[in-house]
Design brief:
Elements (H helix, E strand, L loop, with lengths): L23 H13 L4 E5 L4 E4 L1 H6 L5 H4 L11 E2 L10 H4 L3 H8 L3 E7 L9 E12 L2 E11 L1
Antiparallel strand pairs: 1-2, 1-6, 3-4, 4-5, 5-6
């Protein structure tokens, strides 16, 4: 029978990072990751301004280039959301408050749902995307939301 002995001489614990209280450090770390991601994703701050978006996210959501969207409010930056009716009407303000990126921001919980995004070019079909959002926390409060998209 084999005999195994274990001993611990020192406990290794990673250093805790001190918090600045601004919430921007958390968003800043995520912004770099989102900007370089191959997957379609989006990061917004608590004021719903786009902090970062991946190139594939811009393509899927018909937003143009990432630099054209960053710094602008999510819904004023060219994102046009449509309802799922045959008339393809724009979402009302009450309906837009329920889209996953904003719902995660306001509720502080995970949110998931389908979005219908108006195509940028005439004659191109609208995109239907599955959106999964999570709040980004800083100092125990919601500083923004991170959303991943998948075309349906």
């Amino acid at each position: 029978m084999a005999h195994v002995e274990l001993s611990l001489s020192e406990v290794f614990a990673p250093e805790a990072r001190s918090s600045t209280g601004r919430g921007s450090d958390s968003l800043g770390r995520w912004a770099e990751t989102v900007s370089e991601a191959a997957e379609p994703c989006l990061l917004i701050d608590a004021g719903t301004r786009v902090v970062a978006v991946s190139a594939s996210g811009c393509e899927l959501l018909c937003l143009g280039a990432p630099e054209d969207v960053v710094g602008f409010p999510l819904l004023d930056g060219g994102l046009r959301l449509l309802d799922f009716t045959a008339n393809r009407g724009e979402l009302t303000e009450q309906e837009t408050d329920k889209i996953p990126p904003l719902l995660a921001l306001h509720s502080g919980r995970l949110a998931r749902g389908l979005l219908r995004v108006e195509a940028a070019a005439k004659g191109t079909p609208d995109a239907t995307v599955d959106a999964i959002s999570t709040p980004v926390l800083a100092d125990d409060s919601v500083a923004g939301s991170l959303t991943f998209f998948s075309e349906v």
